[in-house]
C-alpha cells in the first residue's frame, strides 16, 4: 500500500501518493498555480535584491561556476555526513559582502547541493526567521 498525503490544492482533501503533489482533478490547475506563485516570488526577489547579473553573477560567474562544478561534482556538506549527493550550487565559504577579491577566490568556493546551500544561506542571510547577519554588498 503506497504512503499517501493530501492533495496540495487549496481546499482539496483527496489522498494522493507520496511524491505526487496534486490529485488528477487538480493537477493542471495546481501546476499553473505553482508556476504563477513562483513567478511572483521571483519578481519580488528581483525587485528586492536585483537580478543575478546585477548582483555579480553574470556570464563570467556562470563560466567559473561550471568549471568549479566539473572539478567538484559532489556536495561537501553531504560528504561530511557520509552521503553522496550531486552538487548543484557553488557557495562562497566566507561571504564576500561585495569584496571582488573574495568573490572570485577559487579557494573560497565549495560545491553544495541545493538543500545544503539553502540552509547555509538562510543561516547567514537571516532566512527562516533568523536575523540578518550580513550586509547586502555586491561584488
UniProtKB/TrEMBL annotation:
GO molecular function: endonuclease activity
Family per similarity comment: Belongs to the HNH nuclease family.
InterPro entries found in the cross-reference section: HNH (IPR002711), HNH_nuc (IPR003615)
Organism superkingdom: Bacteria
UniProt feature, compositional bias: Basic and acidic residues: 32-48
Taxonomic source organism: Mesosutterella porci
Region span, Disordered: 32-56, 120-139
Keywords (A to Z) from UniProt: Endonuclease, Hydrolase, Nuclease
Name assigned to this protein: Putative HNH nuclease YajD
Chain segments annotated as coiled-coil in the UniProt record: none
Domain HNH nuclease: 62-118
Keyword match Protease: no
Positions with biased composition (Gly residues): 127-139
Amino acid at each position: 500500500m503506497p504512503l499517501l498525503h493530501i492533495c496540495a490544492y487549496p481546499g482539496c482533501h483527496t489522498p494522493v501518493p507520496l511524491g505526487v503533489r496534486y490529485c488528477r482533478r487538480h493537477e493542471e490547475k495546481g501546476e499553473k498555480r505553482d508556476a504563477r506563485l513562483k513567478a511572483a516570488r521571483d519578481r519580488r526577489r528581483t525587485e528586492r535584491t536585483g537580478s543575478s547579473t546585477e548582483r555579480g553573477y553574470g556570464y563570467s560567474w556562470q563560466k567559473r561556476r561550471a568549471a568549479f562544478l566539473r572539478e567538484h561534482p559532489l556536495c561537501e556538506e553531504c560528504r561530511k555526513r557520509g552521503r553522496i549527493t550531486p552538487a548543484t550550487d557553488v557557495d562562497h565559504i566566507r561571504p564576500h559582502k561585495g569584496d571582488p577579491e573574495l568573490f572570485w577566490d577559487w579557494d573560497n568556493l565549495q560545491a553544495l547541493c541545493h538543500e545544503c546551500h539553502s540552509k547555509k544561506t538562510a543561516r547567514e542571510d537571516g532566512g527562516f526567521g533568523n536575523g540578518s547577519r550580513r550586509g547586502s554588498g555586491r561584488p
